[in-house]
Write a structure and sequence with these properties.
alpha/beta; Spermidine Synthase, Chain: A, domain 2; Rossmann fold; five-stranded antiparallel sheet
Length: 283
């Protein structure tokens, strides 16, 4: 009987996506493994998805598929808004969403607020294709508590994008109505916000909870969805709160160079399958 030789000295990174499901990737290099003031930071080189940033054991972004997430986070709301000149990004210290926001030539200033300066520095050093817009003159990158920042501004932004980590520890407050109310006050009269709201399969309670909290605050609340391979179950949701405008209507064309987002994808993303409609009925 033939036996396949076992490969030794293999190094794998594993994310426990639920108590019953894990995602493992073989890696060839550990670039950063440290604990910051706020979280454990692991940055590795994987064979399958390129360089990958992992915070507190949860995959945040990978070079091969990040465009799926970054483009949806940025272009859904920026293309739905008629004139997005000032944009706020909460979280997103890797810079992927910022890069996509600044593809829009009408954006005059994009303010990125991430609490962990170590994440920003690590991304600048090891994720150049993702963090490449941080030195753009229109980018204002600040390391501070987003909750404190939001409470200090009003009527300033056309669009706000909440690129938060999972709703645990210091990020839990970013999924609550009080925070969404502060964001609403920071928006102009026709402003809108978008938040990542997890997977309807592995985190249905987060999807429903976030939708409920946003719906308490905004007169127009909508959910859209798309593919995100390295996130739990590969399907991800985005929830939009809008003061006036229907976010499902694209008012501006997609910027040049996108790999996932198109005007057609924009429209299709708001077409919810029956199981997802039924889930939102709980909200």
């Amino acid at each position: 009987m033939e036996r396949r030789a076992k490969r030794y000295n293999e190094l794998w990174v594993t994310e426990e996506q639920t108590s019953n499901m894990k995602l493992s990737l073989r890696i060839n290099q550990i670039l950063i493994n440290k604990k910051s003031e706020y979280q454990d930071i692991l940055l590795v080189e994987t064979f399958e998805y390129g360089r990958m940033l992992i915070l507190d054991g949860a995959i945040q972004i990978a070079e091969r598929d990040e465009f799926c997430y970054s483009e949806m986070m940025a272009h859904i709301v920026l293309c739905a808004h008629p004139s997005p000149k000032r944009v706020l990004i909460v979280g997103g210290g890797d810079g992927g969403v910022l890069r996509e926001v600044l593809r829009h030539k009408e954006v005059e200033k994009a303010t990125l607020i991430d609490i962990d300066k170590e994440v920003i520095n690590a991304s600048k050093k090891y994720l150049p294709t993702i963090s490449c817009a941080m030195d753009d003159p229109r980018a204002d990158v600040q390391s501070m508590d987003a909750l404190a920042y939001i409470s200090s501004v009003s009527n300033e932004f056309d669009v706000a994008i909440i690129d938060s980590t999972d709703p645990v520890d210091f990020a839990a407050g970013l999924f609550e109505a009080d925070f969404y109310s502060d964001v609403k006050r920071a928006l102009k009269e026709d402003g809108m916000m978008l938040a990542q709201t997890e997977s309807p399969f592995s985190d249905s309670n987060v999807v429903v909870g976030a939708f409920q909290e946003i719906k308490k605050v905004y007169p127009i609340t909508s959910l859209c969805w798309g593919a995100m391979p390295t996130y739990p179950t590969g399907i991800w949701t985005y929830t939009i709160g809008s003061k006036k405008l229907d976010p499902s209507v694209p008012r501006c064309p997609a910027p040049e160079g996108t790999k996932y987002y198109t005007t057609e994808i924009h429209k299709a993303a708001f077409v919810l399958p029956p199981f997802l409609k039924k889930l939102l009925d709980k909200a």
